Amino acid sequence: MGITTGLLIFNKAERPEPVRCNKGMRVVPDCTFADAPPLDVVLVPGGMGTRIEVENPVLIEWLRAAGKRCTWVTSVCTGALLLHEAGFARGRRVTTHWAFVETLRARGDVTVLERIRYVRDGNVVTSAGVSAGIDMALWLVGQMHGEEFARGVQRYIEYDPAPPYSAAV
């Protein structure tokens, strides 16, 4: 789970061992839930693992406790399912990957917006898919460090989307 405190980025996990992602990549945690520093922002990523981790009481309880102290609680894609399970998305407007809109709605007590890149409701910010997560992250950088700084980050990473194919299906 990627998180940030100030400008430092940490990968947290329940255990200190590397976590193997769905496509084979391994992520080595910087700390565990038990020894992490206080957080300003928690970012819950999406992906195949969310379908399993939404049932992980240790993760959900950590997220619930850590998120209560955060300035921002955010998710990309299906990470919104975990935010809902931890209580942060309940009673709020959120978004998620288009293929999981109905899955999230079925969980109840949430308004899931479609065809919107990212949604802010209070201190909870959710984004649709991967590239929408970049949009959300740049907006969040602007909130935390100012628009000029965020524009500099955007320029540095050369983020100027020009997809080669239409998104129309």
Explain this structure:
By secondary structure, the protein is of the alpha/beta class. It is built from 6 helices and 11 strands. It has a 7-stranded mixed beta sheet with strand order 5-2-1-6-7-11-10. 30% of the residues are buried.
Short recap of the structure:
The protein is an alpha/beta fold and 169 residues long. The protein contains 6 helices and 11 strands.
End-to-end span in angstroms?
32 Å
The average pLDDT score comes to 90
- Main sheet properties: 7 strands, mixed
- List how many beta strands DSSP finds: 11
Task: Chart the SSEs and their pairings.
Layout lengths: L1 E4 L2 E6 L5 E2 L5 E2 L3 E2 L8 E4 L4 H5 L3 H12 L3 E5 L2 H8 L6 E2 L6 H6 L4 E2 L5 E4 L2 E4 L2 H16 L1 H10 L13
Parallel strand pairs: 2-5, 6-7, 7-11, 8-9
Antiparallel strand pairs: 1-2, 1-6, 3-4, 10-11
Helix pairs in contact: 2-3, 5-6
